[in-house]
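lol forgot to send this yesterday, sorry. struct tokens for the thing we talked abt
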């Protein structure tokens, strides 16, 4: 490998380093030590953390509706179910059918949007 390849690889790794540690509690101290870990700060007691975990184990449903099934699948998200009743296809689940917002706004909608979100 040429020097140019080494320099390029080092530059790419250096650019990605801050993003890799954005959510960690490690601090760069330099020298031989390099990175040291700081203790994670929390306002919860160990008993509160355990009780929250046990509540989740009892009903493993995330706030977005996904159910934790474990393994490689991880979370399974609910899907609409349909059945034929009286010759019509009807939805048999309790999931809301929220329509997608229209991509093309009417002039009145565009004006309200501009008033609410001025550029």
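and heres what i got for the seq, position by position
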């Amino acid at each position: 490998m040429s020097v140019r390849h080494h320099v390029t690889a080092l530059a790419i790794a250096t650019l990605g380093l801050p993003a890799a540690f954005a959510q960690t509690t490690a601090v760069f101290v330099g020298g031989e030590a390099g990175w040291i870990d700081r203790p994670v700060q929390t306002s919860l007691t160990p008993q509160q953390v355990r009780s929250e975990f046990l509540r989740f184990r009892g009903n493993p449903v995330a706030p977005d509706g996904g159910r934790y099934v474990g393994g490689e699948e991880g979370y399974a998200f609910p899907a609409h179910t349909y059945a034929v009743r009286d010759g019509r296809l009807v939805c048999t689940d309790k999931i809301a059918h929220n329509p997608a917002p229209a991509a093309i706004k009417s002039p009145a909608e565009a004006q309200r949007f501009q008033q609410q979100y001025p550029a």
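The beta strands are 26-30, 34-37, 67-70, 74-76, 82-85, 88-91. anyway ping me if u want another try
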